[in-house]
Amino acid sequence: MTVNALSFNILDGVAVVTLDLPGSKVNILNLEVLEELNVLLSDLEEMADALRGAIFISGKGNNFIAGADLSLIEGIDDAVRGAELAAKGQRVFDRLASLPVPTAAAINGSCLGGGLEFALACDYRVVSDSAGTFLGLPETQLGIIPGFGGTQRLPRLVGLAESLRMITTGSPVYAGQAKRIGLVNEVTATEHLLDAAMAAVEGRLSTGKRKRTLGRVVEENMERFRPGRKVIANRARRAVIEKTRSHYPAPLAAIAAVEYGLNHGMEKGLAYEARILGEMAVTEVSKRLIGVFHLRESFARGDKSPAAGIADLSVIGAGAMGGGIAALAAEHGLNVRLVDRSDGALGSAMRFLHHDVATKRRKGRYTDIDAQWIPTRISPDTGMRWIGSADVVIEAVAERMDVKKAVFAEAAAKVSDDTLILTNTSSLSVTRMAEDVPHPERVAGLHFFNPVDRMPLVEVIRGERTSDATVERTAAFARLLGKVPVVVRDRPGFLVNRLLLPYMNEAAVLLEEGADIESVDRALMDFGMPMGVYYLLDQVGLDIASHAGRSMFEGFGDRMTPSPIFQAMIEAGRLGKKAGKGFYLYDRAGNRQPDPTVKNILAPHIKGTRSFTPEEIVHRLIYPMINEAALVLEEDVVNTPEAVDAAMVLGAGFPPFTGGLLRYADSAGAVRVTETLGKLSEEAGHRFSPAGSLVQMAKEGKVFYP
Ligand code: NAI
User: Fold this and answer.
1) C-alpha 369 – ligand 1 centre gap (Å)
2) pLDDT tens digit string along 394-415?
């Protein structure tokens, strides 16, 4: 079947092939497109004598090729079939690589996975300098490895160490960096892309060699010989294991494929790559990771049109959060007024922005023009004088109801009646905050997570009087800023903090019973959490956590009784990382080390001498989150297990290989979870009493995801 994704014309003796998959926003490599490419390559082979080159360019606005069709991978239930599929793609790209005329990929926009493997099979790659242009091999993030030659061609182009970094992390590189590492031959303005590709196939490109720094020269020498390669590959393996605690087989498998190919040659390397792709595609981890990918997409996608017309944002409060929100908005093209009563806060927010933009400029993510313009979009001010034209106001001032209400009152008096008025509160009632605001239907929560630029989740909080239109507009606004919105009801702790609070509080209770800080943190890292719980508390700040804990206690009573450990730590000035000491000690650079003296502060509260097995730690800390999630669903804070899982993975870093908190609960089984909670409720306290809906699920043999 042909899908007419490819067309070509001849320009000055060069075949210019345009990829444009009909009916799709992005180009995807599915079986039909691969077959069409195969046929086209036959034509080009036949015409070769009359051609001076071939250029591949996309007909899509901001995308070269987004990757292979995911449903192909999902459909693989047998490793041998998976290997055959990879081999099929490899054969097509091999043909591309051996075309007897020079070839160039002209790339504007995302070039990912199979798309980059396509480009790697060309002789040259030229890219646009647009901020939306990036190249990467994200396959290991989905539990598989690049299977269309990526593990073989990338290291031969950019070197072993760099290729392993790209493949094991899955992180993309932007235009400037791609040029520096030798991945692309030329970076140019979008409108000159075709000219640059022409110059490439005609052999007129002067540049293209990667920069040779001292480190790079050393690496090149090491890579030349097998033992040197082994050293580099083992270094990459250690980094992967340290980060993933062996929960993710794909990055290690990819390292093996890269190393094997360099040791045994391209042909054997490709066969090895195909075999491993098949093996990875059938793993449970891969199925789960692809599930998380879809989950994220389903919340991220949605309609952006309700946010059309939002161009002007006022952020009140320029602290850690307000500064981050202002920077994010400016980077997404909005005009921002940043208001704080403190000059110092405004100054540091602007310094942070300049630093951030400069870093991204260095990485090639922004052009010089972007880097010049973005900071000018923010106007700092010590008062709300000029906020009248705002389409959206968001407050991120101190976490106190009276302060926030005063800010809302002042802002509402200045802006028009349909300006969205939003709060970034992490624990206060949005409904109460909106009480005295004229037209409270336009008030909602928009809860970002810290650090703003890195955490994909935002919670959109629907107060009791928030209108549907406001919820939609706020969610669309979040998408406009590149965030993934999950809509939640206005209950204490909203969603993510509500689930994290029992986890953090229980961690303190474990200390009372005699647990050791580092062993618990290690067990949680081994479970797959991105960091240990005490380290997390240090990051959040003990004062902030304790404040949130008190609101939860007020909201939910006994079940959330705060451990006295928090108060003891606060009184001792151990507020966490920002104070240089919390459960751990921190040096000026923020590096952490254990601190034996913390025991002295805890001593008056330690009632036991128990130690806990990793399994007990999971039962005491993770199972209460499942229990709380069941309650959250009972109370309609959100109404689907998908919302819980998306929020926990994207907002709290719950291990993606599990598929999410409630997928994990399903694999443990409601019976086991309720029995364990029931037992803990007898032994350790009623706070563990299983939720009614969980007990029911256990009785009826039900699961969160039928
Ligand atoms: P922060 O203390 O770093 O910043 C607050 C800023 O607001 C300060 O610069 C202060 O000068 C300014 N401010 C206070 N009252 C003001 C007023 N009346 N007018 C103008 N400016 C005023 O606090 P942070 O951490 O940025 O938190 C801000 C809000 O974001 C709080 O509601 C907090 O609960 C919430 N939040 C914090 C997170 C975190 O991890 N820090 C995460 C998510 C939400």
Assistant:
1) 31
2) 999 999 999 999 999 999 999 9
